[in-house]
Specification:
With 141 residues, this protein is of the alpha+beta class. The chain contains five helices and six strands; from the N terminus they run E-E-E-H-H-E-H-H-E-E-H. Helices cover 48% and strands 23% of the residues. The strands form two sheets. It has a three-stranded antiparallel beta sheet with strand order 1-2-3, with no helix packed on it. It has a three-stranded antiparallel beta sheet with strand order 4-6-5. The radius of gyration is 21 Å and the shape is elongated.
């Protein structure tokens, strides 16, 4: 059995399980079925985080949450967007692994997810380390 990972157009990671047909079945095509998997450290996951932050409103929400956890209404009161719009942006940030929420009474409180933010930080560190090493090589030669 072979497992192949791929991402759909929304960045959702999918595992495709392919099995070879039974001997003598005459059917050369592989049977396949999709299963959704949660793989927070794969490249696609990190790309989803960067893509989510590409929107200025989501970046503003992200920056507000960097200060402290907040409810949707509180976030909306500080931005020129409606509460439903803030909820949609939070959904994208949550799906990208950058925020988590918890219920408090009849509200949900959102905060940054250290795991998702850490994955972005790791990728950024890797990028800068490679860039600085290349610059050092260029200067020394």
């Amino acid at each position: 059995m072979e497992i192949i990972l791929e991402a759909d157009r929304c960045g959702q990671v999918r595992g495709i399980e392919r099995r070879q047909p039974a001997a003598g079945s005459g059917d050369r095509a592989c049977a396949s079925r999709s299963v959704s998997v949660d793989l927070p450290l794969v490249q696609t996951y990190r790309a989803r985080g960067w893509n989510a932050l590409g929107d200025p409103t989501r970046r503003a929400i992200f920056e507000l949450l960097a200060d402290r956890p907040r409810a949707v209404g509180e976030i909306a009161s500080e931005l020129p967007v409606t509460r439903p719009a803030v909820s949609q942006h939070l959904k994208v940030l949550k799906e990208a692994g950058l925020v988590v929420d918890r219920p408090v009474g009849n509200r949900r409180i959102y905060q940054l997810d250290p795991t998702g933010v850490g994955a972005l930080r790791t990728q950024l560190d890797e990028f800068w380390n490679k860039a600085l090493a290349a610059y050092k090589r260029a200067v020394e030669h």
